[in-house]
């Protein structure tokens, strides 16, 4: 794996996992060791933790600076030490991620047959906005059924998708059910790349469903952070399609079992390593 900042040279490859942005790793770290704890963590100890993952001090500092600009963390100074603390906005994002990991899960067994449908038509003068809207819809779990018509299983709250885009007059949002000759299975096949989603889960299993994952990692704190980051990115890209319309051997089923088993395996030893490394205060 090569881990580096978005703008600076990448650090040397040290672990056989995909490219991961430092911000994603730091977010996983803060979600586990800062969220709902009421603590601020010293920048120095964050640098020390991420040195174990092969992330340079320069990459950590530049990533934290960008996170400050994006209102994800704030900086505190106590004497000669600098500390970082989560903002309310970051806490909301992390809680959403925690829900996706521990509550929503990777397998949708509770679908009630409804779809959220988003139709939109934007003039050519707003191509950039159209691109942004499509990207946000993908992130929210929607797939393109046909030109200007996107669907997602279940009832979705889409207000955040349209925030700051100024598209309300160009968008229609409905809930619907499939009626013959339209079949729900056909909608899944048309709007979503099932094989691509499956490949992501198989890649996760190839990394983590083995006797000894990441044998070159220095400790279970590193494995824990990489595992959580890998899994969260995976489930956030998953549109959470209804299990009844997916193959019986859908790899997300096994992948979710593996994630929970590994997360439990790494929790205690990772906490011990973190306890030796982290310097935190209550602001």
Automatic annotation (TrEMBL):
Transcriptional repressor PaaX-like central Cas2-like domain boundaries: 109-188
Location of the Transcriptional repressor PaaX-like N-terminal domain: 21-87
Domain of life, source organism: Bacteria
Coiled-coil segments: none
SUPFAM superfamilies (alphabetical): Winged helix' DNA-binding domain (SSF46785)
Pfam families: PaaX, PaaX_C, PaaX_M
Gene3D superfamilies: 1.20.58.1460, 3.30.70.2650, Winged helix-like DNA-binding domain superfamily/Winged helix DNA-binding domain
Annotated Transcriptional repressor PaaX-like C-terminal domain residues: 192-270
Protein name: PaaX family transcriptional regulator C-terminal domain-containing protein
Record organism: Streptosporangium vulgare
